[in-house]
Amino acid sequence: MDFSIKPIDAKSAATGHKATKTACLIVGVFENKKLSAAAASLDGAGLIAAALKAGDISGKAGSTLLLRKPEGVAAERVLLVGLGEEAAEISEKAYNSAIGAAARALSALGAADTVIALPAVKAQSVQWSVRTAVLAFRESIFRADGLKSKKDTTPVTLKKIAFSVAQSDATAARNALAQAVAMANGVDLAKELGNLPANYCTPTHLANTAKQIAADYGMTAEILDKKQIQALKMGSFLSVAAGAIEPPKFIVLKHNGGKAKDAPVVLVGKGITFDTGGISLKPGLNMDEMKFDMSGAGSVLGTMRAIGEMKLKLNVIGVIPACENMPAGNATRPGDIVTSMSGQTIEILNTDAEGRLILCDALTYTERFKPAAVIDIATLTGACVTALGYHNSGLFTRHDDAHDALADELLAAGKESGDTAWRMPIGELYNDQLKSNFADMANIGGPAGGSITAACFLERFTKKYTWAHLDVAGTASRSGAAKGSTGRPVPLLTTFLINRAG
Ligand code: BES
Ligand code: MN
Ligand code: ZN
């Protein structure tokens, strides 16, 4: 799928889109039967107005009507999409539904190329419109049939998508387009890794993916094996890997896009390639979905790929502790006490609370980078799904000025990219729940506020830098008929980094 920017030149500024040659021109109409400016510019013969009047299209956001070769129009087809209430600048919601409806309609058409000529969106830049549409169109053609012996053979006919923009917006739109395509590629990588089952997506596979990204985009990848992880005294990480035959890997991927002396942003991703729960074994129903437990790692790799492709001028390091959580004769038992790389001891009361056990050592390791900010991303708790559902990732940081600023940056990046997060509290009272009679802390804090006590656990390993935690248990994948990875939070993270790079 090829995207491009089509600036409105002097000629088309005069005649509107009448002369636009394309297999399918997309223009908007409103619920009150009014036409958008682009639609009106086509309607010399009054065909569109008549279709609206006759009720062939309601104009409600997301409604569509296809017209073939309207009189006096160069395009082979005109796709009318409803934009809801009339406005010179439409709402984000109307734009989202219009783009979604257009993508759906086009997937059922024989059109090989299209030109999108929708109105500007209220309080949003042309960059936003372009990025939103690119992500939606790419989402609409994503297929997860890599391991089916019979591939989905319905061809994707739509090859070229052009955005009609004002001449003055063309440069900004082109830059936005390059970034949006890179972001979509990053989302696709995260989805592919997430969907890949644990017998393919092993810690070694994640490490090889990091090496490939390094080779493709001029980054450096360092892969530490079990011996090196032992030498670093990552007793907590290794306790999770203990029962697995599949070897653990500790992955460090560096993008040096900024000045050498600039402190990096570090992304730390949970890379549990399968979470059985360990000796605290999970129930069987839907356990297959625990292949998605490396989605944090997948989102780090997806984001690194995206910023590599866009050559982002920022130093960013991806850190991924990767292993399986398996039951076995040599697996960690409930009650076992382990010593983390930080020296703090942990009583493992539940081996299914393993994400925090691998992340804490990765967070300690991260101190060496003297980071400007650290964000960890993890499918950490079912409790986060209970708290926030499937729509928002949970965002946790300390509550002081520096961390409030980081939280605001992340929340804004989430809103901007449509990949939203919601801030949750942490603090002393919740921390009390992590008391252990035998070690410095327990790895669980009981059923109350489970996503919060998990964040409090991580916070104890992040005292030396500015840190935020994203719990993506509810957002990184979908269950049921639409089962699959979403690629979240690659859009949030990439947007955050783009904004940081300035
Ligand atoms: N990977 C799970 C969390 C999870 C649950 C992700 C559902 C996605 C969907 C995590 O390792 C886990 O098992 N957490 C436990 C923690 C509990 C034992 C304190 C949980 O949420 O039940
Ligand atoms: Mn678990
Ligand atoms: Zn897990």
UniProtKB/TrEMBL annotation:
Belongs to the peptidase M17 family. Mn(2+) 2 binds at K270, D275, D293, E354. GO terms for biological process: proteolysis. Its EC number is 3.4.11.1, 3.4.11.10. Keywords: Aminopeptidase, Cytoplasm, Hydrolase, Manganese, Metal-binding, Protease. This is Probable cytosol aminopeptidase. It is found in: Cytoplasm. PANTHER family: CYTOSOL AMINOPEPTIDASE, LEUCINE AMINOPEPTIDASE-RELATED. Binds 2 manganese ions per subunit. One of its GO terms (molecular function) is metalloaminopeptidase activity. Presumably involved in the processing and regular turnover of intracellular proteins. Catalyzes the removal of unsubstituted N-terminal amino acids from various peptides. Mn(2+) 1 binds at D275, D352, E354. One of its GO terms (cellular component) is cytoplasm. Its main location: cytoplasm. Residues 350-357 form the Cytosol aminopeptidase domain. Its cofactor is Mn(2+). It is an enzyme of class 3 (hydrolase). It catalyses: Release of an N-terminal amino acid, preferentially leucine, but not glutamic or aspartic acids; Release of an N-terminal amino acid, Xaa-|-Yaa-, in which Xaa is preferably Leu, but may be other amino acids including Pro although not Arg or Lys, and Yaa may be Pro. Amino acid amides and methyl esters are also readily hydrolyzed, but rates on arylamides are exceedingly low. The active site is at K282, R356.
